[in-house]
Amino acid sequence: MSGRYEGIDWHARARALQMRGEALINGRRVAAQNGATFPSLSPIDGRQLALVAAGDTADIDAAVSAARTTFERGDWVRQAPAARKRVLQSFAGLVEAASEELALLETLDMGKPISDALAVDVPATARCLRWYGEAIDKIYGEIAPTAPDALALITREPVGVVGAIVPWNFPMIMAAWKIAPVLAAGNSLVLKPSEKSPLSALRLAELALEAGVPPGVFSVVPGFGHTAGKALALHMDVDAIAFTGSTATGKLIAQYGAQSNLKRVSLECGGKSPNIVMADYPDLKRAARAAAGAIFFNQGEMCSAGSRLLVQESIRDALLEEITAIARAMPPGDPLDAATRLGALVDEPQTQRVMEYIATGRSEGAAVAVGGARVRQASGGCYVEPTVFADVRSDMRIAREEIFGPVLATMSFRDLDEAIRIGNGVVYGLAAAIWTRDITTAHRAARALRAGVVYINCYDADDITVPFGGYKQSGTGRDKSLHAFDKYTELKTTWIDLA
């Protein structure tokens, strides 16, 4: 943690933090129309943070109506690109100015270490907003190479009203990946955050208003997936729906899009990513640190987590020894302690899910090399040790299904062909990695691995300038980079007869 934050008593800051749970619709904080609420509970110790509005169909209707009105009236879309650019850059600056508050909301609501929230989540959110703000006046149309007696213009137009449903593991970053390109393209937006971590999204909407986003252009409706989320995806006046979350829910969102108005649907779903280490890679300590970070960062609650470690047979034992040593040195701790590297899982149901998978791995015959226990139970929070399984077979559930926790399944392989076969042998295709000093091996693996992102001699390298998304049941469409505009814009051809 940088010197700016050294010595801060985060527990005291948390006690002083004011947290509000009302929806933000058409520029105003409002209760759910039926008065329903649900408690936002901190996985750190089980404390209640706020009572949150449980939005339902009526609240989604109100938010979509405001979004449609502002879009058709042109409150946002008809502003000059330079004006919208200034607003998004101001929005980014307000996020940076509120970094301590937003980081605390993230840590309290979903359990990640405060040091990660400050170093990763807040800066990434601000950079995303600023980058898309800067892109607004850098995107040009095209002129088609037609015959001389015609002029064909190809222009991008906003799709209209966008609904976005985002997950709980990176609440601010995942929200920003939708908010920034949706608004940059000139659309109006209704955001439904996860009921497990809604507080930072509600605060972001307030900051957007302060920055100058017109009321109604960006609303946030908290609530449950089967009510508010379903209503948003089925809404006949929503032109596009963007979802990040589990593959099972993503399949429902795709159905809702087809059942309603055939709205455009983009999905960023689950993963079971292979991290392949070849025997020729010369620095096993570096590979081990990266492999541990790939599964233990954010408590393993990452869709792109390197949850399957594939190791060539001759280095299996040596690499496993390095990783287990790292795991032993990072026990779960208090997320409000700046020294903590592994925080709490998001809530009790997710903790139970992770523990059930650990029990399944044992029953299927895999060996627990380190970890495997729930800890810090006296705190009232949700903490699981970093867990490494050895002797995993590719047909085991812990090798095929997304666990979304700090659980690593380790397998060995003989040669690259076998590693590729194992790596591609799941329904997911979000991320993958290959560690090797041989350039031919690296290129062969990168081409053969069916994944949206392939890392070579690294893991989870990231920048807003590169697209993120998956193959197979990891989803459709891409977040980040200029490619995100494809989801939120229509291409229009204007044909002019010059004859």
List strands and helices in order, with pairings.
Blueprint: H1 10-16, E1 23-25, E2 28-30, E3 37-41, E4 48-53, H2 57-73, H3 81-97, H4 99-110, H5 114-135, E5 142-143, E6 150-158, E7 161-165, H6 171-184, E8 188-192, H7 199-211, E9 218-220, H8 225-234, E10 240-244, H9 247-259, E11 264-268, E12 274-277, H10 284-296, E13 308-312, H11 316-328, H12 348-363, E14 367-370, E15 374-375, E16 383-384, E17 387-390, H13 397-400, E18 407-413, H14 416-423, E19 428-429, E20 431-435, H15 439-448, E21 453-456, E22 471-472, E23 475-476, H16 485-488, E24 489-497
Parallel strand pairs: 7-8, 7-10, 8-9, 10-11, 12-13, 12-20, 13-18, 17-18, 20-21
Antiparallel strand pairs: 1-2, 3-4, 5-6, 6-24, 11-23, 14-17, 15-16, 19-22
Helix pairs in contact: 2-8, 3-5, 3-7, 4-5, 5-6, 10-11
Characteristic key phrases:
alpha/beta, 24 strands, 21% strand
How would you sum up this structure, described in words?
It contains 16 helices and 24 strands. It is 39% helix and 21% strand. The protein starts with 9 loop residues before the first helix and ends with a strand. It has helices at residues 10-16, 57-73, 81-97, 99-110, 114-135, 171-184, 199-211, 225-234, 247-259, 284-296, 316-328, 348-363, 397-400, 416-423, 439-448, 485-488, and strands at residues 23-25, 28-30, 37-41, 48-53, 142-143, 150-158, 161-165, 188-192, 218-220, 240-244, 264-268, 274-277, 308-312, 367-370, 374-375, 383-384, 387-390, 407-413, 428-429, 431-435, 453-456, 471-472, 475-476, 489-497. The strands form 7 sheets. It has a 7-stranded mixed β-sheet, with helices on both faces. A 6-stranded mixed β-sheet has the order 9-8-7-10-11-23, sandwiched between helices. The model has no long low-confidence stretch (mean pLDDT 97). The longest helix is centred in the first third of the chain and has 22 residues, at 114-135.
